[in-house]
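Human: I would love a firmer grasp of how sequence relates to backbone shape in proteins. Take your time, and here it is.
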Amino acid sequence: MSQDPSAASGSVPTYRPVGGHAVLVEFGATIDKRIHDRVVKLDAALKVAPFQGFVEAVPAYASILVCFDPLVADHRTTEAAIAERLAAEVPKTIGAMREVEVCYDPDLAPDLAAVAEASGLSPEDVISAHLSGDYSVFMYGFAPGYAYLAGVPKAIQQPRKPAPIRGIAAGSVLIAGPQCLVSTLAMPTGWWIIGRSPTKILDATSNDRPFLFDVGDEVRFRRISRAEFDARCLV
């Protein structure tokens, strides 16, 4: 993602046409809560006051894709409508607080010791740091229900692994850099696996609410024992 100086400073976003049906609105190029707050504000404004031809908005870390019906609107009118909504006063959106249970037993957290060694901490210190993180949902992507959380404490941040590992179990609690994620499917990953959660993030049987989180929600992790984990997995 290219960075526009004005976007990074929090003034004017960059607009980029996407095909014939969307505009990408970029507020910066980093994982930053101040930038993401502007993404969430625009998303909320479009929900409160959709413009003629509006179809949907897809928020990400530092940008939001605004899709429109090309039979009703175009890039120019969409950019103008976005600018109007950015200038308008919109009540601050307060996300829900969601709790996610996590068990850190060694067989469920195969990378916990490696993260501890790389961070110069004990495994218990890594767990404590992870539990203390200030997490919020920044975006969905990659796979169904994959909610990307920002807020991993700097003390345990690690770059992605050089290569992904296949067959990582659903429910794995993963970290990479400032990001955290709870996997919903058995998938390969190059992130660090520091625990596993029985909390259902994706409910494929629900038409009304298939995902536990909304973008902008706050997330709190709660440690559970192996016995609690096993019991929850039977539910």
Remarks:
- The chain has two domains: 14-87, 97-234.
- Confidence is low (pLDDT under 50) at residues 1-10.
- The first strand starts at residue 14 and ends at 18.
